[in-house]
Write a structure and sequence with these properties.
The protein is α+β, with helices and mostly antiparallel strands. It is built from nine helices and eight strands.
Length: 262
């Protein structure tokens, strides 16, 4: 891992093993201004300068450090300006209920930058939801709808059944486009899915049907994270709206299962 190697290098700096850092370009060294400042603080503390051999930047002299700080400040400003412009474009598109990408759920097509219902495929999508209600199982739903051009894995089928675009909601905005599934049917399917505690061969996520995100209200899903120092994994819960289909929730925090249980 690139960041792990960076931390190993900084540990060597702290141990007095490095006198000078030499690398090719600044963008191979850090990701943003804050990352640079945090790293530079360690280098300054242990009097370790650096040189970028493919660029005219270095920190051995006051003039060199001034040039680096000025360059980084302008680069950060430009990045923030670009991000602001992109957000303004996305905001305008949302106000006009336009789609932001070319990927659409089964049963919809893009017409004049808007999601519209494909009548033939919409009937098949409704059949999927009804089949799940009738059978109560994703695997059985897959079997009974095989050959209709639908998802072929349990994970993809579950993602389809959880997609709020089918009730006309997009990017967290209700009535963004016409709905294929009525809210009552969709709510029933979500309730049935939530009753099935997520399991694998080795793990059971006992809170996956109980936790919801404090920001967007969506269900928290179970997964694992790694303790790098101990080399072990532990269970956590994360917002499905941030990590899965929608990715429009800003809540990136995770809940540790042991702490949650206490």
């Amino acid at each position: 891992n690139e960041r792990d190697e960076l931390q190993r290098m900084l540990d060597d700096v702290r141990d007095g093993k490095i006198d000078l850092l030499i690398f090719t370009k600044l963008d191979r060294y850090f990701r943003n201004l804050q990352h640079y400042l945090n790293t530079q603080e360690v280098l300054d503390k242990y009097n370790v300068p650096w040189i970028a051999i493919w660029e005219n930047y270095e920190t051995r002299t006051p003039q060199g450090r001034l040039m680096v700080n000025q360059m980084l400040s302008f680069a950060q400003f430009e990045a923030e300006q670009t991000g602001q412009r992109i957000n303004q474009v996305f905001s305008y598109k949302k106000q006009n209920k336009e789609v932001l990408s070319g990927k659409v759920p089964f049963g919809y097509v893009i017409k004049d930058k808007h999601l519209v219902i494909d009548p033939e495929k919409a009937d098949i999508a409704r059949q999927v939801f009804q089949t799940y209600i009738d059978t109560g199982g994703i695997s059985e739903t897959l079997r009974k709808t095989e050959g209709l051009g639908l998802p072929k894995t349990q994970r993809a089928m579950k993602k389809m059944l959880q997609n709020r675009k089918y009730i006309g909601e997009c990017y967290g905005i209700e009535n963004y486009h016409d709905a294929i599934i009525d809210e009552g049917t969709f709510a029933l399917v979500q309730d049935m899915l939530n009753r099935n505690v997520r399991q694998s061969k080795t793990r059971t996520y006992i809170f996956s049907s109980l936790c919801t995100c404090g920001n967007c209200g969506r269900r928290m899903i179970g997964t694992t994270d790694r303790n790098k120092s101990k080399g072990t994994r532990y269970k956590i819960y994360i917002c499905s709206g941030h990590y899965r289909a929608f990715q429009d929730c800003i809540n990136s925090k995770s809940l540790n299962e042991k702490k949650l249980e206490k």
